[in-house]
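INTERNAL AUDIT FORM
Audit reference: QA-55
Scope: verify that the stored structure record matches its stored sequence.
Auditor: D.O.
Record contents follow.
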Amino acid sequence: MNTSTTIESGPWAGWRTWPEDKFESGTGPFYMKRDEAGRVVCRFIAEPRHMNGGGFMHGGCFMTFADFACFAIAEEQTEGPSVTVNLSGDFLSAAKVGDTMEATGEITRAGGRLIYVRGLITANEKPALSFTSVITRLSKRP
């Protein structure tokens, strides 16, 4: 199971990330923390490497960030190894280099092995992607 690490210094001090997840770290890196209300907030700054050939954020980057956010939102519910079994997104607007990308959301249901999450990604506070996900807890093997 990945455990999050808190960033100690720099512009992301106080935020957490999962450094063991090489794909997300290489794509983002993406960061998470709880705000004053206890809500999980995920964030990163869009860079040229996140853009598609048209100069806007690549859909794959949006979806990778959405997947990261789902696990951040559901972190306390996963209770061990878990994987995404469904991830859907509706693209609402484009994002460009320099945009602050932020994801928030909620667990809509958690019981048995499945956790249902929904959320919204914004680009500079403008809705950019709504997403839903289903995460399954994996059985622990002896």
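Auditor finding: record pair retrieved intact. The radius of gyration is 15 Å.
Action required: none
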